[in-house]
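question for whoever is on the cluster today: can someone run the full assembly for these? four chains, 1540 residues total. i dont have access anymore since they changed the login thing
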Amino acid sequence: MIMSELLQLYKNTRSHSVALCEPLEIEDYIPQPVDFASPPKWHLSHSTWFFEEMILKKFFKNYKIFHPHFSFLFNSYYQTVGERAIRTERGTMTRPTVAEVYKYRQYVDAHIEKLLQENNAPELQELIILGINHEQQHQELLITDLKHTLSYNPIHPVYKEGFNLTAQKNEVEGWLKIPEGIYEIGFEGEGFHFDNEEGRHKVFLHEFEISKSLVTNADFLEFMEAGGYENFKYWLDEGWNWVNENQINSPLYWEEIEGKWCSYTLEGLKLIEPDHILTHISFYEAQAFATWKGLRLPTEFEWEAAADQLKWGKRWEWTYSAYLPYPKFKIAEGAVGEYNGKFMVSQMVLRGASTATPKGHERKTYRNFFQPKYRWQLTGIRLAK
Amino acid sequence: MIMSELLQLYKNTRSHSVALCEPLEIEDYIPQPVDFASPPKWHLSHSTWFFEEMILKKFFKNYKIFHPHFSFLFNSYYQTVGERAIRTERGTMTRPTVAEVYKYRQYVDAHIEKLLQENNAPELQELIILGINHEQQHQELLITDLKHTLSYNPIHPVYKEGFNLTAQKNEVEGWLKIPEGIYEIGFEGEGFHFDNEEGRHKVFLHEFEISKSLVTNADFLEFMEAGGYENFKYWLDEGWNWVNENQINSPLYWEEIEGKWCSYTLEGLKLIEPDHILTHISFYEAQAFATWKGLRLPTEFEWEAAADQLKWGKRWEWTYSAYLPYPKFKIAEGAVGEYNGKFMVSQMVLRGASTATPKGHERKTYRNFFQPKYRWQLTGIRLAK
Amino acid sequence: MIMSELLQLYKNTRSHSVALCEPLEIEDYIPQPVDFASPPKWHLSHSTWFFEEMILKKFFKNYKIFHPHFSFLFNSYYQTVGERAIRTERGTMTRPTVAEVYKYRQYVDAHIEKLLQENNAPELQELIILGINHEQQHQELLITDLKHTLSYNPIHPVYKEGFNLTAQKNEVEGWLKIPEGIYEIGFEGEGFHFDNEEGRHKVFLHEFEISKSLVTNADFLEFMEAGGYENFKYWLDEGWNWVNENQINSPLYWEEIEGKWCSYTLEGLKLIEPDHILTHISFYEAQAFATWKGLRLPTEFEWEAAADQLKWGKRWEWTYSAYLPYPKFKIAEGAVGEYNGKFMVSQMVLRGASTATPKGHERKTYRNFFQPKYRWQLTGIRLAK
Amino acid sequence: MIMSELLQLYKNTRSHSVALCEPLEIEDYIPQPVDFASPPKWHLSHSTWFFEEMILKKFFKNYKIFHPHFSFLFNSYYQTVGERAIRTERGTMTRPTVAEVYKYRQYVDAHIEKLLQENNAPELQELIILGINHEQQHQELLITDLKHTLSYNPIHPVYKEGFNLTAQKNEVEGWLKIPEGIYEIGFEGEGFHFDNEEGRHKVFLHEFEISKSLVTNADFLEFMEAGGYENFKYWLDEGWNWVNENQINSPLYWEEIEGKWCSYTLEGLKLIEPDHILTHISFYEAQAFATWKGLRLPTEFEWEAAADQLKWGKRWEWTYSAYLPYPKFKIAEGAVGEYNGKFMVSQMVLRGASTATPKGHERKTYRNFFQPKYRWQLTGIRLAK
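^ ran it for u. tokens below:
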């Protein structure tokens, strides 16, 4: 990539994070009601910390860190890089203030921009691109985490009128048949990709059919009305326990008000639209729905083999594949290596992308992954048979 | 009380809450890291809600409530007054904003002031005084809760230079002997008091001696150095479990840094001063310390009988009395009655007052109470024998 | 006491433990479904261990302990006497077998009997009497713990036909008025008593009335039918949480079968008899019932002052007194001292005795104590006003 | 299968369960210290219940069930067949007694034997074989669950001298290379197999090498001495949390006594033999060990493709494959269908067999599965690269 293009991409990405926070009040930057989500302040800081820790400290001559505490406070997983604040206590940190965090961003941006004008080492370029992709991942989390936090408020705050991540209709229908054969899976080519997509390899697939469309709210309401949440026979044992322990009877954010199903959205509480694409469901619900239909979820390999002939990108689609290493997968040395491989157990793969995924971040070989119980991402269902 | 005096007292009290928050950043108003403490925003709102709910709705003709959601959000215990937001989720509420909360305060203040100029019904006057005392209680909680929240931050934020609740020395020494006899316990006279102090009654006390001074940090360090936290024989069984489950080895907020005991204070991290009065200890620690000394804690009746001859008011002093009803105690009808009587089990009485107690709020018959494990209030130890 | 009488008392007490277990199958000696109750095997062993550890090791010349593991396995609280097996894992110990435990009892009995024929030191005599009282306490726990364990079995096992701890009627009625005055509280005289009863002292009591009868099932059914379990206003805050978290809607062991209230008893499932005395209720329920009646529970001092004029001994009666030290209470040195004083926080006093209390073990100054939530003892309600 | 052979197989299988319990005391049949393991009494009853519920009720004319309670008490997972006792309370059931359970077995055996002499319907035959395999599975659990329960006893009970499931040496060494290609996976042929092995299908495998030997105690001690349990970089994130939360520093049942590693076995406490095959490790430990070695675990497909050239059957070998459905897997209708498919999420596949697996129950297509944290089975490690 030409250096000026990279600089522009850097600036655009960094601006987009700020733009996402434009509608926020200072108060909105702080709370962390659940340990799996983080406050906006933390996302803004942590993505900045990545550029400081992984790039400026190494490449910027005589770099003076912005503040000694920030490294400690805004590290996330990276155990290699020293102690870090406890994940579950991100919501208790009132200082540094939001204003200071923005100063931190500006300080790091100024140094990165200076650095990119002077240095075009391929290793630097690679890390910048990694940092950009890392920030894009946090942009998606920032907005989905924020929605989750705001959803706790009984007064249903509006993030921004006209900004609604969930109001999409299907535009296609029917089934796509894919013939038996050997398929190549995994990233190929030159662009950016994560380590977990590497190791392009062959898989044998038997013939299958995959739906061109995603499941809609109307489809799922049928399942609900047919007693889907009350009948153990559609559920995995672990899913059935999850339903009962958490008294689940609808997708996340849904509430029944005077006989009508509504849902909390970033525009406030809205009526469920039957023809919109279903979202905010767990793997357990996706699997139970498929079983109830007499169908199944595709594997991630089937999905990738079919992807070029499918319309995808509005929802993260649960697959019936566990998140496991590809053949020859190796964890990279050092902190960067803690990125993906550490999580390769007890999680399910999601393929596609969502309306919260930043433009240019999606990729057909992209492997997203979450524990099967999680619902706060923009998840959806594509069926196979 | 003359109405203009009452109005002035109201204004002073309300201003004091605002003054306590003057050093805060917006961010500081939000988090609630533990369920037993509440954020400043909630204290400011809830004490205001009390005046709106208990007084304006009833006495102010055609009163228009400030906002329908606030009643729901800022109710605390009062089950009589309808649904309320879940206590453990106070820290997740980003809206209403802090600015809106201040508007709410001004709106209610304006109406109360107008009301007090027009109406001097004794019942109104009584409720205003209750509301003032309620707000004073929340002022003490506001500052101690805030300290607790800030203490989670590894960068030890400073609330305000020169404002330090814990830097007091003893000014007295020796023992006071109180003779055997019948003593009158409980509130007497005309001023304000809570329902739990009522029912003045006789108790028989055997002769006892009570210390004129409170235990210092140096005293407690001796206990620590003598292995006090490691020897079960000084501890109540429940206290010993508490020590071990929570790995307690010092008072709250203390940390040992390079061999020196320091403590988080509202002025940041400070060295422990040996001659300062000990604070932030649980009942279990108070009791274990007394046992180690071969002494004991006074009962609340002994304390009250001796109070006029003691210097008190810098620490809440744990007594070895459980918080139980006085003879003839009756819970008042309605929401006001939910105030005190509901908590009369599994808590211990503290007598005295602390440096966080608003001026004029302290009283020798005042019965403060907490579960024996709690330490975030400005608690201390006075010994008896 | 004459030595031969003491020996006879020892033998009778020891035989009674064995007699209580006569209807049991081997299987019944093992499980411990909850941590607050212990299996019969443990009670039989632990009460024997007490005689071995506290008496034989000290007084019996060249005493050879029965088995080195038993000291470790059957110690309960006594931290002074070395490590002990974890309380919550008593139900996992299949070895030593029940047969071995009976051999252990016989071995210790033979040695104690020999010792008592040779040695009449007052200190020995005192410890024997303590051991007898200790075993009597465990007899009561053995049968109430056993009932609790059997109650988990959906097939409602019968312990023994004709043996029913709960089928008692009231035989008295009306109120007893006790005049204001100074009363002496605590043990007086020469017989056996626990350290927590010592320190006879004066208390001043205001005039009160205390019920001659105990609350019946019919009385409590009225409370239930009046919605007592659904109305927070009768409950202490802690009690209300307890009701809701545990979904309590009746006394322990009750179940509604086809519209009729039944209760698990040691004779199997039985219909609730309205005129029988209520039992298996928590302090919270006792207090809520009294509040609903517009009455209150007596204090332990009121109870003791009235005891000589009351019929008592079928139920442990919850008082509204916390379990706290009497004036001048001192914990005895060593293991014996761990008996009572260690528990003097967060528990409520029960007075009286129950149908499970061994004959001769009851005493009007006896202070029983449990946490307010517990219901598996034969607890009941006596009202005061 | 000829009917007389089937009858003989039935009798042998049923006798083996009884033989496994021969060394037990009555007491050993009862406890269930953890919810993932069940008491011997339950295994004996549940495997019998299977024959009664699935076969006798359907095929034996006018069959009179042994006892109405047993169906309720000894059902395990099968939600289709009505309510069942709570899994975590199996250890609280003292009745029916062990003697009654043996009578139940004899009663059911007599009826099955009679039935098999009269009826040779293929459907019956198939269910009998399923019941036999089901009982064999419970035989393996019975002995591993029992070991787990006995391990809680600080006196290290001996189950039976000379019976030691863990004292095996490796008899092979070196690596086996398997070429790239398409392999057929899943059960083929006519014999018994579980539904999860069905759907023989093709998978493409890249070239790999797999170890002929299993990891030994000496190998693992090297890992331990190299600080393997203290270095996060070898561990999956979930595994690292598991290590820290549970303070794991060795395989299950190991304890260090005076500087020497010992292990609880069914023969009591024994010194660790370096050249014995490692066992009782979690998937997390297996994966961390492989990472430390710079190697990896095989997938279940690699394992099956290599199985005919490997010596296997002493340990259940953790694979790096999640337990997921094979293509075209369908859950069978009714209770039998609840067997396997319900668990296809969040578990890892183990291949091979163990020294506790009944003879004839092992199969190269057999898919065993457990959550990655479990260690009480006879698990081991085979490496791949």
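summary bc i know u wont read the tokens: The mean pLDDT of chain C is 94. Residues 83 and 257 of chain C are 47 Å apart (CA to CA).
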